[in-house]
Design goal:
alpha/beta, five-stranded parallel beta sheet, two-stranded antiparallel sheet, 11 helices
Length: about 260
Amino acid sequence: MIDIEDILAKARPNQKINYDKMMQEMTKLWQKEEVRPKILMHVCCAPCSTYALEYLTQFADITVYFANSNIHPREEYRRRAYVTQKFVADFNAKTKQEVTFIEADYVPNEYVRKVRGFEKEPEGGDRCRICFDYRLDKTAQKAVELGFDYFASALTISPHKNSQLINAVGIDVQKIYATQYLPSDFKKNNGYRRSVEMCDEYDIYRQCYCGCVYAAKAQGIDFKSINEEAEKAMKGKDGRGDFPQIAFKYQGKKL
């Protein structure tokens, strides 16, 4: 096991950390020691999971954790969860990998309580920091519960997200739980470009807003249209029923 805090302790004060290089060094050590760690990776949608899965499955066993109660409205949440499951199933079929999937409960009121008082924050501000912490905390809890070696986030694939902030939040969350955070900056090394290519290859739905009601309103998103499109896309579909082969099993039981 590699503890990121040991590495950061050797960094100079106020030094901007290259989290992509740090992750690469960790994967090299896994290979040298001939270990294949188990990683629970939080993803917010199928597009953000594309390159992250392609890269990490070379070195580790990955379970995707869809924990995104920030997404509004409910039908859009269901659509994104379904599309993520479909991508994981298609990715496994194409690559012969065995990525599994867990979906957290959808509890939007819990998210609303977390960000209360920060509703008017601009995109990328303190509300986003709280949201990152909220979702990564859930991921770390689940990683401990199920015995994963690391927890991680695919959020760093987005050029619109602050990877330094996401990683700082992940490292802070690690201090609370008996699991390790995997640093990343998946947009590096043409990672974002590769994610766009993979969306085309797998015919993946790419949403037009991050997810929360506050940022969406600021963008002028038409929720009625979004809801109608999501309902139409989800007609007759059920993720658990359509993709049972990717369901994560714990002690022989599907979660």
